[in-house]
Amino acid sequence: MSPATLEGYLVVGAVLFALGMVGFLTRRNMIVMFLSVEMMLQGVAINAVAFAKFRGELGGQVLVLFILAVAACEAAVALALVLMLYKRKKTLDVSVWQELREPDQAPIEDEDTLPPAPRPESFEHLTPAGAEPAKKQPQEVSHV
Amino acid sequence: MFELSLWMIPLLPLLGSVVIAAAGRRWFADACHWPCIAGAVGACVFALIAFVGVTTLDDPIAVGKDTPWISAGNFVANFSLRADGLTAVMLVMVTFIGALIAIYSSAYMKGDPGYPRFFAAVSLFLFFMVGLVLANNFILLYACWEGVGLCSYLLIGFWFAKPSAAAAARKAFLVTRLGDIGLLIGILILWHNFGHSLEYDVVFANVKTQFDAGTLDPDVLFWACVCLFIGAAGKSAQFPLHVWLPDAMEGPSPVSALIHAATMVTAGVYLVARCTPLFALEPNAQLLVASIGGFTALLAALIALTQTDLKRVLAYSTLSQLGYMFLALGCGVVVPDHKLAAFAVTAAIFHLFTHAFFKALLFLAAGSVMHAMGDTCDMRAFSGLRRVLPITHWTFLCGALALAGFPLLSGFWSKDEILAAVIEASEAGHHSPAGIIYGVLALSAIFTAGLTAFYTFRAYFKTFWGDEKFPPEAGHHPHDAPPVMAWPLRILAVGALGVGLVIGPLTPWFANILEYRWIRPQYVHLAPTEPHPMNIGLMLVSTVVGLAGIGIAYWMYVKQPSLADAFAKRAGESYDLSRNKFYFDEIYELIVVKPMSIIAQVCRIVDAYLIDGLVDLVGHLPGFLGYLVRPVQNGLVQFYALLMALGLAGFLLSILLQGK
Question: For residue A16, what is the domain's CATH number?
């Protein structure tokens, strides 16, 4: 078995990066998009350690340590954001947020329709003593 | 002690004003007169202390000589105050009259929604006015000069919802501003030519040194004096800038009394008197001052003959009396040894002093008439008020007699000194053109004295004599002045009767203060060499003229009231001319206001369509570009990411291609 070459590592890194990018551009699920971003990051990290190993200096490895630390922070923030976005719309589809476009632009419609939105969960409340129980209105969820 | 009092005099009214303005409206809206009265009375007490200081110390009291206020490069203006004889006299007069009028106003303005605003402005006015006379350099004087102009504007337009009052305030502000530009130019000429300093002493000493050395350029001094006089003419409403003062009567009556009769309008007289050392070296400027003063005196007296509004008669009479003061100021130096200068200035300031008493009294009495008559002061609407308004009647009579120059009352003495000064000027310059002009001015001044007596008593008889008649606004029972208004009237009436006798020529007390506490210590070359004798013959003439004026008024308006109308018909055109104020407002409208408003219209069109159009175009351009690229922002995250990826790819591609 021939020894590992720099090209091999770089090819693996490039493949990872390209897969990540394609994933990010094509998927609409926010968590999957986030995973794709992480993949792109790891492609870059592999490039960096490969150069560090083959050129005999530690700069690339240090850079990768930084990338890991930053990725951890980023993951915390991004997942928190995704969670909040999910709470608003009860869906992970990123295209429902296209209402943040410029006000006078027409929305871009999907060719294939989305699955129907799940009904919002409603939990039973214990009726307060004495008063007539209020009728619970189902919450409207808008889908683009 | 004396130094402290000098600081306190401006400080107390300022404090009163600030207290009223900051807290008055919310916490003590009905008691807002107290800070103002306290400030004015306190200032008056300290003014008397300063006066004692001036008359007992050898040198003028000065404070703040090393307190820099503005400094830029080699220009330094100090915040320095100084009290000499002239300032002390002005201070006592301003604060005393101001305190009385503040007390009077507390009753007169009662119930007005702007009560706190009124007293804040009056107090602020007193601050600026005492600052003006206390200033020790031209720049501080100029600042206070603008300050009193501002207060005048605020108070003329006190009832700003009334269109005529707002217009009068604007007119007063703009016309006096025209004069202020002259004053500023004059100050700059002095600064540029006489030692790059604005301290009075330095400027005057430099002028004198240059004059003695023969290096003085007469043109420079002449134009400096003329520019200063333009400022004085604007503030003191002299021809041709006199048009604002009669309209200023739109303000409340106490304001007319304080600002537009007794104090602010005399600031011009004060300025010229303060600059006597300059004017004394420039006979041509003096001749100009005297001519303008004499002409204004005559013109205003002629207009006052036919006015039907009580306050307007008094306003024109103020113009006329200010004209007298300038006439006297212009008489200093036809003779090279300046021996008349001190006498002429004393006459002018003496008239200023007595005039403040009787004119403030007349305006306050007119205010009392308006108070009773439901804010009407058209003399055609009421008559025969002497029984219903006894206090007002008697005090008005005292003021009218003093103004008419009735023998032994204050106006008699001061007007007489002015006439004496003019006659001496004409005698001293005999056979020269200047002497002839002074002669003409003297005759016109004596004639004006007769007119003064006539129009004053015309107003008096029309208001207080004849059949009892009230306007409908007065209600059923017109009431006389309440005590708070009556006492200032009484005090001023006593002043109008007696002040001339007590401090006038009989006891040369007033002349001594000005001479020994101002002129002799600082400008010894202007001091007279021998005491000035009284001119008995002139006194007889002016007595006869004054009594004749009163007599004719009595005959025309009491004995045979039909005579006045018949006379007016006979006079025809000249009656209309006087009644329409010689059409000055119309002429100014035509030659100044109309062209200006046309220019303003042109500017407006250029601004609205040309300049605004260009600016709008510049604003629209980025908007248009934004419109073009706006579709990019469609809200799809993938689309943004794709653009970024493509952009990056394009960027890398261009680097690769260039690298080849």
Answer: 1.10.287.3510
Task: Examine residue A108 and state whether it is found in any structural domain, yes or no.
Answer: no
pLDDT digits (tens, 9 = 90+) for B213-261: 888 888 888 999 999 999 999 999 998 888 999 888 888 999 989 888 8
The answer to whether the Cα torsion of B11, B15, B17, B21 is positive or negative is positive
- The tally of domains found in chain A comes to 1
Q: How many CB atoms lie within 10 A of CB B410?
A: 32
CA separation for the pair B142, B271 (Å, rounded): 10
Task: Report how far residue B389's alpha carbon sits from residue B480's, in angstroms, rounded to the nearest whole number.
Answer: 5
Do B638 and A110 touch, CB atoms closer than 8 A?
A: no
Contact B10, B148 (CB under 8 A): no
Neighbours of B222 (CB within 10 A): 16
Any domain includes A114: no
Q: Concatenated DSSP letters for B67-99? A: -EEEEETTEEEE--EEE-HHHHHHHHHHHHHHH
Q: Do B635 and A21 touch (CB under 8 A)?
A: no
Range of the domain at A61: 6-92
Interval B187-211: pLDDT, tens: 999 988 888 888 888 888 888 888 8
| SS3 at position B75 | strand
Domain-embedded: residue A87: yes
- Coil, strand, or helix at residue B368? helix
Q: What is the ipTM of this complex?
A: 0.76
Q: Is the dihedral of CA B573, B578, B579, B580 positive or negative?
A: positive
B447 CB-near residues (< 8 Å, 6+ apart): B298, B545
Q: Which residue of A has its CA nearest to B630?
A: A102
Q: What is the DSSP string of A11-62?
A: HHHHHHHHHHHHHHHH--BHHHHHHHHHHHHHHHHHHHHHHHHHHT-SHHHH
Cβ partners under 8 Å of residue B262, min gap 6 = B93, B94, B97, B101, B355, B356, B357, B359, B360
Interface residue A131 vs chain B (CB under 8 A): no
Nearest to A25 among B630, B633, B645 (CB): B645
B356: how many CB neighbours lie within 10 A of its CB?
26
- B164 shares contact with chain A (CB less than 8 Å): no
